[in-house]
Amino acid sequence: MSVKDLFKQAADKYAHETGELCFLPENRYNEKLFVTQGQYDWLSGQLLYCLIRYLKPKRIMEISTSSGYATLFMALALKKNNDGIVFSYEIDPKAAKSAAGNFTDYQVDDFVKLHIGDVRKTSVLAPKDFDLYFLDSMHTDTFARWFIETHVLRAVRSDALFHMHDILPRHARVRCFNGPPFEGTLLDPNPKISRSKKLKKAIKNMLLIDNQLENDRAPLCIYPPLSEKELPTYDGNCTTEAIVGNDLAAVMNSEDYVFLYDVINDYPELEPAKYNSAVYGRADHKNMPMEWNNSLWCRVNAVKSAYKILAERR
């Protein structure tokens, strides 16, 4: 069965349960619940939940926890299964504290084992038999390669799955509000967020981005509009991790991976656009708010084979 078909079967069986998860996207930017806010989209979260309900995994490895937003999609599914555990790793004590509070509040403590500290040290003794390897962390090629070489390549389950977040297929065409592909400015007269917030964010970015992070940013390829009603776009990938993920997918068989961006329209029953209007910073080719669903799912054995092929080419 292809990875794409696997998700479809999981959704067909468990989509009726995902209405119980609406509190997550409705509170995604609630700093009282989630001190760190991410962009794990509504469709991606529902499919993650359905997949776990369907596969009933015993062990999941997640890097990183952040405030536990994506973790809750997983843990709530495990709670329904009444079995399984997420080994979740987080380096930021403040974020981990927020996550731990959420796990307690939503009564999923028994389904999450939270590890606090540098995962390159805290995961040294991690098991090799995870069913899912869920990567959503530093978004650099260096860290992605460390994760793959340290954990994915030594995975012993032939049916295990691998997930990478903040990655789109190279044929994707998207925009950021007042961001790539940079046709706007910080003082856009019709901003989607306030001018003061934009300026604060720009200043913060200038102060925090060090040379290492700059080196981990991928060059952007800007695509001109296809009509007068459209705007310039790019493929949504701006990190070196996304280059690694796309390179891996390029040498895999098509049935061994799926970009969720490509299957958005396959799940009308999950209402993938339900929270588009509330999304922060992301847009389509017309600059309308859009959740990108920027996740890549692969079979672990396919990752192993693809990684070997790419290593031989280097």
| CATH topology name | Rossmann fold
Beta-strand portion reads 5-15%
CATH superfamily descriptor: Vaccinia Virus protein VP39
CATH architecture: 3-Layer(aba) Sandwich
The main β sheet shows up as: 7 strands, mixed
How many E strands?
Answer: 9
Mean pLDDT: 90
Textual characterization of the structure:
This protein is α/β, with parallel strands linked by helices. The protein has one domain (3-176, 236-313): Rossmann fold, CATH 3.40.50. The chain contains eleven helices and nine strands. A seven-stranded mixed β-sheet has the order 3-2-1-4-5-9-7, sandwiched between helices. β4, α7 and β5 (161-165) form a beta-alpha-beta unit. α10 crosses α11. The radius of gyration is 19 Å and the shape is globular. Residues 183-191 and 206-214 have low confidence and may be disordered.
